[in-house]
Amino acid sequence: MTEPWTPSGPGVLRLPSGRLVRGRGLRKPLPSGPVPTFGVYLLGRTPPETPWQSRWVHWPDFWLPRDASGFQAILREAWERAADERVEFACGGGKGRTGTALACLAVLDGVPADRAVAFVREHYARGAVETPWQRRYVARFTPVPA
């Protein structure tokens, strides 16, 4: 088992299950401290290589994931791994796509879809989930059973 994120660390979100995940913007330097063991990168282009395992979700800035079922599979993998690994989600700025993914992760963790954006804005970042269609995506998000 990997030592978890520090709950008060930058960008760390505690889900109702107790799992800790980190959100961040890739345009900022990597925060000091432990590095992820698994990353989910939400970008319109292939992300840079990392020394830890990662997955890429093709997701242009301000929009939605190009492959919704692929996103669901990666989201479930990240949620499962967050039980005992340091998982991070990141996009360019760390708010829109990252906030949307964290809100969907919160739904997967048991937060009602109509409360997930508010949950992420309260516990991760006030400006998370930037566009009306990202908010709508979260409100309509229904996890596919494992």
UniProtKB/TrEMBL annotation:
One Pfam family of this chain: PTP-SAK
Residues annotated as domain Swiss Army Knife protein DSP-PTPase phosphatase: 87-117
SUPFAM superfamilies on file: (Phosphotyrosine protein) phosphatases II (SSF52799)
Domain of life: Bacteria
Entries under InterPro entries matching the protein: Prot-tyrosine_phosphatase-like, PTP-SAK
Keywords (A to Z) from UniProt: Hydrolase
Name under which the protein is recorded: Protein-tyrosine-phosphatase
Natural source organism: Plantactinospora endophytica
